[in-house]
Structures are given as structure tokens and as C-alpha cells.
Amino acid sequence: MPALGSPRRLLGSLNCTPPATLPLTLAPNRTGPQCLEVSIPDGLFLSLGLVSLVENVLVVAAIAKNRNLHSPMYYFICCLAMSDLLVSVSNVLETAVMLLLEAGVLATRAAVVQQLDNVIDVLICSSMVSSLCFLGAIAVDRYISIFYALRYHSVVTLPRAWRIIAAIWVASILTSVLSITYYNHTVVLLCLVGFFIAMLALMAVLYVHMLARACQHARGIARLQKRQRPIHQGFGLKGAATLTILLGVVFLCWGPFFLHLSLIVLCPQHPTCGCIFKNFNLFLALIICNAIVDPLIYAFRSQELRKTLQEVLQCSW
């Protein structure tokens, strides 16, 4: 797909602004206010991608190694790690190819570069969609484990989990192919934005409901122990902090990118929106940061997984 003046080829058709020339500049807009442009060096893209790559490979390896982790919940976490892994691999591959082309080390025909660009676009788009889907799947899994604890193992079975995982991957690939093929249609951008809002709303509703149930349970325990105020407040604050981290990371890392897509539909020619378009690379970097943070939130908090991870690292040495 054509890159309409994008600083990076990947998803370049979604960005129609020239590259920033300085790491942080206030560039005067010809028709409006000054624009704050944040340029992300290629070296930073490579570094973030490699860190995410290592983290998520370790998560996948640990879950594959330990049979105690072969459960639906950990399979969803493993698939989230694989989605984040694809985000990292796609960005590292794209950055490496761009650097080689700019240095003249890699010489190839324009048609080949275009095809490679399309493949990378499909990879990154499908990994984004699948990553959000598995975040939602993890939230649903945790919700069922809390509100339907006695029926959990009959509701969330391994065959059913595998079918859900397969459906997510197939839907993600089809969505990415359609999105890249019809990238210049407004309805495609609106569907992607609507999908993000729906997943964010789903996660917010489920996690808030889980927090309310946990606080209610804590109040019941506190009444029995006649220490209602200290226990309830402490548990409520901890739960609220955890909820803020879960939803805040998703919103901060993914929100700017989907805001970018929204503004392309709402105000493609407005000077203020143009200022936001100039920071497209920053929005991609935030998505890679999310791929780094996900293992810390969903995987490394598990004691069993951390223990297995230590064994994996010891074997590698």
C-alpha cells in the first residue's frame, strides 16, 4: 500500500504527514498554531522491539515448559504474548529493512519492497487486533472464574478455549487483510476505532464489576472479624490501584493511535489535527511499550510462571 509521506512505511497510509526532523520541536503550522513534534529514532524502535521480543519469548517458553500452566487462562496469556511478539517482530523487521535500504546495503526492486511492506502491515495490524482480543478474553476468563467459580471448569474447557483462540487468530488475520486492502475507506477506520472502544468498554465493565464483588467480599470478612474500616479501605485502595493500572495502560498505550485514526475521519485537513498526525511514530512506539508492559501485568505476577521462568533462564545458561 502506498505510504503517503509517512516517516515509516508501516501503516504509512494512515499517516499523511512529513517526518519530524528533530527529536522534540515546536514546528509552526502554516495555517494554525505551533505543533509539538516528537521524533522517535530508529534505534529506539529497535531497542523497544528487542526488549519486548525477549520478554514475550520468555513468557511463551515458560508456559510451554510447565504443564501446570497448560490451562485456558495461561493459554490466553500465552496468545497475548504471541500477539505482542508479532508487534515486536514486525517493527524490528520494518526498522531493520528501512535502515538497510537507506544505507544501500539492501538493493531490491520497488515492487518487492512494496510487497514486503504489505506483508509487514498485515502482520502488525493482525497482531494489534489479536492483542486487544486476547486482553478482552483474559478479562472474560477472570470474570467467569470469580462470578461462576463452581462452574468455571465446565464453562471454560480446554477445547472451548482452543476454539476461541483459533477464532480470534482467524478473525484478526481477515480483519488485517481487509483493513490493509481497503485502508482508504472511512468505514474501515471507523470499524477499527469502534472495535477499540468496544473492547475498552468491555474490559472496564468486567473489571469494575469484579472490583465491586471483591470489595463486597472484603466487607463480609471484615464484619466477621469486627475490623470493617481498616480492611475494607485497604483492600478497596489496592483493588482500585490494580484496576487503574490495567485500564490505564490499555488506554494510554492504544488510545493515541486510535485517536489518530478517528481524527483522520473527523478532521483530516484541520491544522490542530495535523499537529497530532505528526506524532504518528510516537503512537506506534506506545503500542510497542504496551507489548513490554503486558508480561509484567498478566504473566510475571504469577509465582508459578516466575519459578518456571527462572528454570528456563538457568537452562539457557
Automatic annotation (TrEMBL):
Interacts with MGRN1, but does not undergo MGRN1-mediated ubiquitination; this interaction competes with GNAS-binding and thus inhibits agonist-induced cAMP production. Interacts with OPN3; the interaction results in a decrease in MC1R-mediated cAMP signaling and ultimately a decrease in melanin production in melanocytes. The keyword Nucleotide-binding does not apply. InterPro entries: GPCR_Rhodpsn, GPCR_Rhodpsn_7TM, Melcrt_ACTH_rcpt, MSH_rcpt. Residues 55-298 form the G-protein coupled receptors family 1 profile domain. GO terms for biological process: adenylate cyclase-activating G protein-coupled receptor signaling pathway; intracellular signal transduction; melanin biosynthetic process; negative regulation of tumor necrosis factor production; phospholipase C-activating G protein-coupled receptor signaling pathway; positive regulation of cAMP/PKA signal transduction; positive regulation of transcription by RNA polymerase II; sensory perception of pain. Belongs to the G-protein coupled receptor 1 family. The chain crosses the membrane at residues 44-63, 75-99, 119-140, 161-181, 187-214, 235-259, 279-300. It comes from the Eukaryota. This is Melanocyte-stimulating hormone receptor. It is found in: Cell membrane. GO terms for molecular function: melanocyte-stimulating hormone receptor activity; ubiquitin protein ligase binding. Its main location: membrane. GO terms for cellular component: plasma membrane. Keywords: Cell membrane, G-protein coupled receptor, Glycoprotein, Membrane, Receptor, Transducer, Transmembrane, Transmembrane helix. Receptor for MSH (alpha, beta and gamma) and ACTH. The activity of this receptor is mediated by G proteins which activate adenylate cyclase. It is a multi-pass membrane protein. Pfam families: 7tm_1 (PF00001). The gene is MC1R. It comes from Capra hircus (Goat).
